[in-house]
């Protein structure tokens, strides 16, 4: 890893096809800056994404990348990281990808605590399919497929993560470039599964959860003097707070033990030993 | 008639130690130099229910469960009786003694535990025994077991009785017990074994002819199931990553891998579902580690999307599909070959994969290794099909068959120096998906390698992996990916021994065609048919995709008629054959079975006679003949 990596080194020459003003521009820029700030090089970085507007991020970044199946970015990223722990694995997705079709994977990726980063671009809408309700849409939000609103409470991804035993839970806002970069950076540096829910507004299909809404309503935990992110009880209260939404690191388990350490994995698996283990044939001893 | 083989059936309830006892019995026979084959029949429940295992042992080659059996050890289902009488309904408690008595050969032996089973509850047992010259022994195994140890040891008592009736030494059994247990349990079991043995010798007179045949294998043998074969093949191929989710019968492979992989420096992870399982394997493989996953029908259905992703991103991957009877949950513990079309075509778009279907544990080992080799050389998913039958069926295989030397070759991957020389686009992205390669295989870098960055995507993409809907590029990429199948077919035809298994005279008049796990029964039927004066040969097809058109054409051209023997209701392999070859419709008929039990050789013999000679009767309701087109 060289220290002279600039964040623009992570940028590909492809112009994003996101709508002008889309929150994903800011989300991606912050990710690239955070990767550069943490001393990663593009050759050692692996970006995995699913399907949707968020899924295209691998196209716009100049790292190794995989643009896979809707909802399955986390399992693919998990496989990549387990196989080559030297890679910096960054999984990106949208709210539909992560909390609807991929919700099952989210819960288990959180509890598996593999040392990687998961950035969800949460715009509370399905954008690429042109404006349907997402799992984080408000219950009265009218869309083409929910003409009277979904009449279902939105998923609280932070609570889902906390209940699943998360070791790092954060929330950021794509247009607050400095804070967003800082928060993603902390997630990368975290020893375990670093989860960041990023409010990344859709300017075309969501006229409720807008830049203005988040700018006005988000409470930055950095400005709350007595907030201690290592305190799970405080985190629980903030995450379940029905009146306010927060930005910042909501929870970080300082004693997080990542998957690799729990399983005693200390080598790169692609370095396959030349021969069989000494007693390889004995492995069939039970069948003699 | 004196049988030249022993087919010993131990029957009882799930949880009564049928598996472990039969395993030891099979090993004891194997150690005397006999060839051994085991067949497992069990219900989808943890306790109780009717379970049996058959062990066929002979000096000649044994490739199937055989026709019927000649020794029944009916242990009784302790869970049908205990903890309280009539805890289960119906005739469960007499099943170990009554079920499939029709299959007991003339002159056969019945030993039943009179401590748990009452022969009077079994209709006409006495009359039938007389009629069929069965030798029936009622022995209170339960009491013998209780006297020296615990009731569960009545399986050991049953082995002692078997040994006495068949004139077997006890020493091999003692040795196996010493290897498996110790302390009081060992001592008690040995006492039970000896007491049962002595009681029979002292208290019973017997006049049966059945004996244990003498074995002549000099070389050391190991007892290996299809699941073992797959797992050892994977380990020796250099597989170092597996992710899975439990499902019968796939769980066996997953378990063996999970227990062995850490010793090879690898990782096994049980994940939340089969989508994740296949997706983790795609990720690990993409990062350069030989990886696998697998499931049975329903779980494999969930893998459709990651499988398609592996095809489109050209990520090598090996999946195992351990079939069971479908549709839906079907019959979870019964074999069937009805997932063939599912495996060949699942996932959207034109399928682009390699499929092997081994016919025995030894082939499972070889073809799993081959699946890894092809998958990693050609950057394509390869699927190995087994089923509930092969999965748990043990056969003796010479120990030297397994070389146990892991293959570290990562397949077609460039070094960093080669990457530096390779083509990049104007922005510096590595051209991972070059069109103009000879065999369709494009240059591959691994994440982390310097200068090898590219985008892998499930979208159609250009040379550097970027999404592209350009028509010319689309056709070029599709054609290149498909070209790989032709290259693989050429390699399999030209550079390796045929994966197919042939028996019978080359100039035979008639052919039997089968695929995968019914191969053994078909081959035994072929031997018998030729002995009876028919002129028959067989081909057991193992590499299903890319379809072995040359070999199949040659086989079909050489015979007047051929019967495709497979375990499904819709003649799937016959359909594939006609689709791939576009002719021979008038020559191909089918013998189908889908009642949950594998073919027995006699059913194939009679099916052949019914179809070809028109002389035999359609063999009962268990099989069905589907005539050739125009017949």
Automatic annotation (TrEMBL), chain A:
Residues 268-278 have a biased composition (Acidic residues). Coiled coil: none annotated. InterPro entries: 2-oxoacid:Fd_oxidoreductase (IPR051457), OFOB (IPR011896), PFO_beta_C (IPR032686), THDP-binding (IPR029061), TPP_enzyme_TPP-bd (IPR011766). Residues 202-263 form the Pyruvate ferredoxin oxidoreductase beta subunit C-terminal domain. Residues 51-198 form the Thiamine pyrophosphate enzyme TPP-binding domain. GO terms for molecular function: iron-sulfur cluster binding; metal ion binding; oxidoreductase activity, acting on the aldehyde or oxo group of donors, iron-sulfur protein as acceptor; thiamine pyrophosphate binding. Keywords: Iron, Iron-sulfur, Magnesium, Metal-binding, Oxidoreductase, Thiamine pyrophosphate. Its cofactor is [4Fe-4S] cluster; Mg(2+); thiamine diphosphate. It comes from the Archaea. Residues 130-154, 259-278 are annotated as: Disordered. The keyword Oxidoreductase applies. GO terms for biological process: cellular respiration; organic acid metabolic process; sulfur compound biosynthetic process. This is 2-oxoglutarate ferredoxin oxidoreductase subunit beta.
TrEMBL record, chain B:
Residues 15-197 form the Pyruvate/ketoisovalerate oxidoreductase catalytic domain. CDD domains: TPP_PYR_PFOR_IOR-alpha_like. The keyword Transcription regulation does not apply. SUPFAM superfamilies: Pyruvate-ferredoxin oxidoreductase, PFOR, domain III (SSF53323), Thiamin diphosphate-binding fold (THDP-binding) (SSF52518), TK C-terminal domain-like (SSF52922). Residues 233-478 form the Pyruvate flavodoxin/ferredoxin oxidoreductase pyrimidine binding domain. It catalyses: 2 oxidized [2Fe-2S]-[ferredoxin] + 2-oxoglutarate + CoA = succinyl-CoA + 2 reduced [2Fe-2S]-[ferredoxin] + CO2 + H(+). GO terms for biological process: organic acid metabolic process; response to oxidative stress; sulfur compound biosynthetic process. It comes from the Archaea. InterPro entries: 2-oxoacid/accept_OxRdtase_asu (IPR022367), PFOR_II (IPR033412), Pyruvate:ferred/Flavod_OxRd (IPR050722), Pyrv/ketoisovalerate_OxRed_cat (IPR019752), Pyrv_Fd/Flavodoxin_OxRdtase_N (IPR002880), Pyrv_flavodox_OxRed_cen (IPR002869), THDP-binding (IPR029061), Transketo_C/PFOR_II (IPR009014). GO terms for molecular function: 2-oxoglutarate synthase activity. Residues 437-457 are annotated as: Disordered. Its EC number is 1.2.7.3. The keyword Transmembrane does not apply. Signal peptide: none annotated. Residues 508-581 form the Pyruvate:ferredoxin oxidoreductase core domain. Keywords: Oxidoreductase, Pyruvate. Heterotetramer of the KorA, KorB, KorC and KorD subunits. PANTHER family: 2-OXOGLUTARATE OXIDOREDUCTASE SUBUNIT KORA, PYRUVATE-FLAVODOXIN OXIDOREDUCTASE-RELATED. This is 2-oxoglutarate synthase subunit KorA. It comes from Natronoarchaeum philippinense.
